[in-house]
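Hi all, long-time lurker, first post. I run a small reading group and we've been trying to get comfortable going from sequence to structure in the token notation. Rather than ask abstract questions, I figured I'd post a concrete chain and ask someone more experienced to write out its structure so we can walk through it together at our next meeting. Sequence below, copied exactly:
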Amino acid sequence: MTWRRSTLGGVLFVALACLSYLLGTMYVVTPWFPLMLVRPVWYRWVVDHLVAWYWMFLVALLEMVYGIKVRITGDSINPGERTLLIMNHRTRLDWMFLWMYLIRRGQLSKEKIILKNELRKIPGAGWGLETACFLFITRRWEEDEKIMKKILDYLSSIGHRTQLLLFPEGTDFTERTRQRSDAYAEKNDLPKYDYVLHPRTKGFVYIAEKLIKEHNLDAIHDITVGYPDGKTQTEADLLAGRFPEEVHFHVRRHPLNTLPTTSGQLEQWCTTLWAQKELQLKDFYQKKRFPDTNVLEGGKPGDPLQELRMKVVLWLSIPFFVTVILGVPYLMVTSTYFFISAVLICAFYIAQRAVYGGAEHFQIDLYNTFHRK
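-- Answer (accepted) --
Happy to help. Here is the structure in token form:
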């Protein structure tokens, strides 16, 4: 495992991730775009599953090649459940490691993530995140409210059973962000935290109230992530091959009928959860694990058939995307058709971003124009 946790291993992972997302978006996802004009619901189903297939490839690399272990305690997501996932933001890459939970105890193809707008600018990967219909926010509330309303209304209109991931802290936990959180705490007579940041509740309250009001929420899943032995704080750590040895998740499910009903109560509920999370993580980093409460993965044998199916799917994703990564560039070089198609696809993504603001807005605007009643 030595080379895998070196710069060579980190660069290889990042290269595979970026190339698979770029070429997969261009030649696996894009050919399905005409379907959005005919059957928008079918289009969303197909693209969501293709994007999840790519994420499975990354999980396969993380677990089977780079040897990362996952431990899960607490609750699962019920099949087909519409949920808001709220998680502490320990590193910039928590969302990627969360896929290790969702392929086991959630529904990866239904996940949507609220991300910083800057991430759409990542070459290739940004296009893929847009086609997945993620929510890119600017941190300017007047704009972000319109973006969230537009995309959540679209997903609701097509009957999408969304599992929406939100980081209420707004950014990852670092020394600099901790100091900012401490300053906020001191100004507002709140306790200072060592393991989490004080949550920004405005976006959480807006999303929770909107989903509840429109009957698009079955539960909120409170996820706490911890890294007992090393962590990948930033993309630079990823390039350097500094992968965590293990990732631990503890999940608590809060059914709809147990949630607060007013804005003030929701805000206080979220704030209380984060105070509990601080204590939970303090205990975690002392003991290097969450309590053995309903261990779902990493502590006891599960369903052998289910585990076998998951491993087969993960293993199959590796040769598929390696073939895409090697085959598409070869065809671009040897085939004029493929070269021209690559130029046209790239031009299309550049043009639609300039005109519509991103592939997610492009598909929603088409849907609203031709299909929404």
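A couple of things your group might point at:
The beta strands are 69-74, 83-87, 111-116, 135-137, 163-166, 219-226, 246-255, 295-297.
The two ends are 56 Å apart (CA to CA).
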